[in-house]
Write a structure and sequence with these properties.
The protein is of the alpha/beta class and about 260 residues long. It contains 6 helices and 11 strands. Helices cover about 25% and strands about 20% of the residues. Bound molecules: 6-phosphogluconic acid (6PG).
Amino acid sequence: MAATTAVTYYVLGSADELARAMAEEILEVAQAAAATRGIARIAVSGGSTPKRTFELLASEEKFSLFPWEKVELFWVDERCVPPDNADSNYRMTREALLERVPLAADRVFRIEGELEPEQAAARYESAIRNRFRLEGAELPTFDLIALGMGADGHTASLFPHTEALHELVRIAVANQVPQQKQSWRVTLTSPVINQGRKVIFLIGGADKAHVLSEVLSEKYDPEVWPSQLIRPKGGQLLFLLDRGAAAELPPPDSTGRGHLEIQR
Ligand code: 6PG
């Protein structure tokens, strides 16, 4: 029986407005999770788009109430490179955020990209299992999973026609991505992403417009459009977009909000 995913998208006027909207979403989730469960577990993506959001979280007065003492930070994926490499998602996050906010080192759970990929994935999975005190085949429930999307429709390091698309049991896996410069990646798997309490796609740029409309409207084929794998259990999926990325979607209402129902 096809499941319905309610997709809400907000179209922001500029890259800066987009970054700010995401920073506000992260603050809201962190404060709510800290108030409700005493801890906010957040998994962030790499690439270029999140950098401005991280800088705002670290610099703007508005975000000075961020409950860093109640936050644990994880990564959705990593390129298999050392942490000081220019392609490291950890490095990008460290420079834009971690070096500028009071998040204790023992609350930062990075993927050890410098290790052999399978070993890095296994260590990351066990770090998550320990921290979430998981048993058996239990999966972690992150309070927020922040995703991006590539112009090829990939998200996390779930790339078209790659092994990790088919992983349904493990929490994190190594994934060989011949089409990418950094061909080995470690990524959270789609069952874990879909277990997230809140899942947000942050997507900017006209180069993503066509593939985004395909991901949302084409027939279900995650081998071609891996972002289609993302159908959160709670049935809610949020997209924060700039005008360029939203160009091929139905126009939003006067508040910039758009809505789609996806049956898959
Ligand atoms: C990575 C990311 C990846 C990213 C997309 C979008 O390691 O590359 O986690 O999934 O979100 O590639 O990247 P941009 O934000 O650079 O467009």
